[in-house]
Write a structure and sequence with these properties.
about 300 residues, alpha/beta, FAD/NAD(P)-binding domain, 7-stranded mixed sheet, binds NADP nicotinamide-adenine-dinucleotide phosphate
């Protein structure tokens, strides 16, 4: 069987940066990505805080540039959803739905997925008015009313994006102050199409064929409100794609993977990077830094266990 020096799991900024570094280190490397689960950056319209692009860059374009840079080096890129990792002597077996790969090291940077509210109507109307991606679905809501749930950077950024299409965007937040960066807050407050609904906890989403209303409870007074609208965009944070790491390396109580500053986990040979890392600020630039650190650590580790080349 083909034995890799490193198998990188994830085709987002963390995994792609790890790919560039592993490629330059001339490690025999396989990068596994999943086309069915697009990474968060691809779904981001405008990135304003990635250095070197003062005029901003579209998420899809940034990932394409990173991918083209990876392809300059001799890295194998393949599709595969990783389902498990198993130790086999000095090697790790990486299992996907269709294959098993053997490698000296694993660099896991599979990112995170959108959290769900878990309220009635959310599942039923998914794709029929309920969405977790403004770039994917925003255009369906031209001249319509939508609600955005959440008060973090994602909710505020995506609410601003949605005003390109929707005639009205209600931003519902469970508290009376936003968590989002001040620059995003200022842009949202200045946008006449955005209406803020504070101290509001979503209770259910209703409709017939598609969404027609959102029912929410006020936390500052005993009142339940019915807001007529056409769509509900949910941006209440993320949970890590670490199912295949659970029981293999140490994770915190919410499933985020624990690593030291060199991205070494509790298991020798397994390194992590990007949004999956417990305590990460979850920024593209930080994911890239993690990917670089993880591959440098993997390179040291692999050269140590393989010993000097004959
Ligand atoms: P986040 O910062 O965790 O914010 C989640 C928001 O959802 C919070 O406002 C939270 O309310 C609310 N929320 C959580 N659970 C809820 C529930 N069950 N019901 C109602 N509301 C709920 O997540 P995020 O905004 O997706 O950001 C994730 C990370 O990506 C952050 O580190 C962020 O800085 C980064 N990011 C950066 C940019 C950028 O730099 N431009 C853009 C997007 C994301 P509370 O505030 O009350 O907790």
């Amino acid at each position: 069987m083909n034995i890799y020096d490193s198998v990188i799991i994830g085709g987002g900024p963390a995994g792609l940066t790890a790919g560039i570094y592993c490629g330059r280190a001339m490690m025999k490397t396989l990068l596994l990505e999943t086309y069915s689960v697009p990474n968060q950056v691809v779904l981001t319209d405008e990135i304003e805080n990635y250095p070197g692009f003062p005029e901003g860059i579209n998420g899809f374009d940034l990932i394409e540039k990173m991918k083209n840079q990876v392809k300059k080096f001799n890295i194998e890129i393949s599709e595969g959803l990783v389902t498990g990792l198993k130790k086999n002597g000095k090697l790790w077996q990486v299992k996907t739905e269709n294959s098993t790969y053997e490698t000296y090291s694993v660099i896991a940077g599979a990112g995170a997925k959108a959290r769900e509210l878990g309220i009635p109507g959310e599942k039923e109307f998914r794709g029929k008015g309920v969405s977790y991606c403004a770039v994917c679905d925003g255009a369906f809501f031209r001249n319509k009313s939508v609600a955005v749930i959440g008060g973090g950077d994602t909710a505020v950024q995506e609410a601003i994006y949605l005003t390109r299409y929707a005639s009205r965007v209600f931003l519902l937040h469970r508290r009376d102050t936003l968590r989002a960066q001040k620059i995003l807050q200022a842009q949202a407050f200045a946008n006449k199409k955005i209406e803020f609904i504070w101290n509001a906890v979503p209770e259910k989403i209703t409709g017939s064929q598609t969404v027609t209303a959102l029912v929410y409870n006020k936390t500052d007074r005993p009142e339940t409100m019915n807001l007529a609208l056409d769509g509900v965009f949910i941006f209440i944070g993320f949970s890590p794609n670490t199912a295949f790491l659970s029981g293999v390396i140490s994770c915190d109580q919410d499933g985020w993977a624990i690593a030291d500053q060199r991205m070494q986990t509790s298991e020798a040979g397994i390194f992590i990077c990007g949004d999956v890392r417990a305590g990460s600020y979850r920024q593209i630039i930080i994911a890239c830094g993690d990917g670089a650190a993880a591959s440098l650590s993997a390179e040291h580790y692999v050269s140590k266990i393989k010993g000097p080349a004959a």
